[in-house]
Amino acid sequence: MNEQMWRAIVDCDPAYDGQFYYGLQTTGIFCKPSCRSKTPNPENVRIFLTTGDAKKAGLRPCKRCRPEEPFRLTSEEELAQKAAAFLTQHCHQPLSLQQIAAELFVSPYHLQRCFQKVMGVSPAKFLLRKRLKAAQHLLGNTQESITTIALQVGFQSSSHFSAVFHKETGCSPTAYRQCQSQGTKKPTASL
Ligand SMILES: [Zn+2]
Fold it and tell me: In 9-70, at which residue ranges do the beta strands (DSSP E only) sit?
């Protein structure tokens, strides 16, 4: 399992549905990445590319997310998933709605409307959450400066990054890092 797959499972990210399945030897079931069941212990997770492989390994399909149901998407869902995958892949660089829409050959208005309807958040908010999660990971696990992290996760400046981080999580990047390094409980709202 790679980091990207693990993030998809933790985030219950529907953009990855159909790309892989994950099984748990402990429960004997397998799920789609978007399954809303409890986040598993990564040590128990096994990745499968098809439902057939999961069943061959002796696992049963989850009753909640029904991984075997035919994968039929409406055009709106398909567009939203493509956009989500694009945003996830390119979240480390500056992106505008116009750019993403052009990439997917639709109008910005149509993209905005479909994405909001299917994903429950705007593309901008979705992107922001990806960036802040990436930033939290870097703050907690590296010694990089706030400025470097801001640029790395796709913000144009560290002051903008700090302001947004504070607004969304309730604490500054520096305070977040200090809490992480002291091993105290996460001070921030979950994103
Ligand atoms: Zn499931």
Answer: 21-24, 29-31, 45-48, 60-61
